[in-house]
Write the structure tokens for this entry.
Amino acid sequence: MSKNTKALFKEELEKLQKAQAICNDHKNNANELIDEFRELVAVFERNLKTTIKLTSISDGQQVYLKEVQAELAREIEERKRQQELLEYYAFTDMMTGVPNRINGFMALDRELKRLQNEDTYFSICFIDIDGLKSINDGYGHIEGDFIIRTFADVIKESIGEADVISRIGGDEFLLLLPEKTKSESEAVIKTVFEKIESFNSLQTKPYDIGFSYGIMEINRELGMDCTDKIISAADSLMYRNKTLKKEIGLCE
């Protein structure tokens, strides 16, 4: 304990002794007031002694306590980092870095719950890469993986901050567009199409990347409140468009 601290406690003890002397030497009948004052003095004395003990911890003990605190802080940070990694691996598609199927379905479920409480709307787009099986068979899965990553990057560059892209299967993606109408979502898909066309025109690959899609606008009037039903309906629209493209020779 420093000299200044000792001097402070010495001064407080002297005040305490004077207060006790006043109590013992009183010449009036204010017994209740005196008793109350004595009790306060006793409490102060106990607190003062406790404070002296706490401030008398050795330098070595203080260093040890600081080391323990630092170790606990490091342990907490490490656990937080591990938790963040676990969440990343649980909700991210490792090939593309976009949200995975679970994450995409959770985002859709959140929008459906918001739709129940607010007068809002959103659109959903089911996307399927055309001819990926032929590329895998003809040029290998490494080439097919390159196509999937490229396509995911193009979509990420084309959507807004509130929009969510998720990979839900090998060549299938789900695009969630909060507070976008079907026509606004079509504009987003048009941007994706233009970027893919630009990529195809610049690459030297013996094939082009293409995709089929199905878009639905979801609102209260539609009466669809089930994630599986909505995805199934959007998937059916996508498959219908893909079938039409096959019939006119635009995709395999």
Summary: The beta strands are 122-130, 164-167, 172-178, 210-218. The mean pLDDT is 82. The chain has two domains: 3-56, 101-247.
